[in-house]
Amino acid sequence: MKILMMLVVIIGVLALLGTILLGGKGDNNYDEKTKGNISRLSLIYIILAISIIIAFAVYLF
Question: Are the C-beta atoms of 32 and 50 separated by less than 8 Å?
Fold first, then answer.
């Protein structure tokens, strides 16, 4: 169980890093809006992480 949880965390972190690294690449219009796009994507990841933690806590108790 702990191995699976660590795997989920590792995949989530890698997905976040990949999103941030790829966020600056693209066409010129995307480059102008990169900050807003990365902010929204980061917010999605934060909400997802909080939801996972809450769901896991509910599952344990």
Answer: no
Residue 12 has pLDDT above 70, yes or no: yes
| pTM of the complete model | 0.48
Our CA angle for 37, 40, 45, nearest 5°, is: 125
- Amino acid at the residue 59: Y
Using alpha carbons, select from 55, 59, 60, 52 the residue that is nearest to residue 15. 52
Cα 1 to Cα 8, 28, 53, 57: the distances in Å are 11, 45, 15, 14
**36 is written with which tokens?**
């807003």
Which spans in 1-61 are helix H? 2-23, 28-32, 34-60
Are 37 and 23 within 8 A, CB to CB? yes
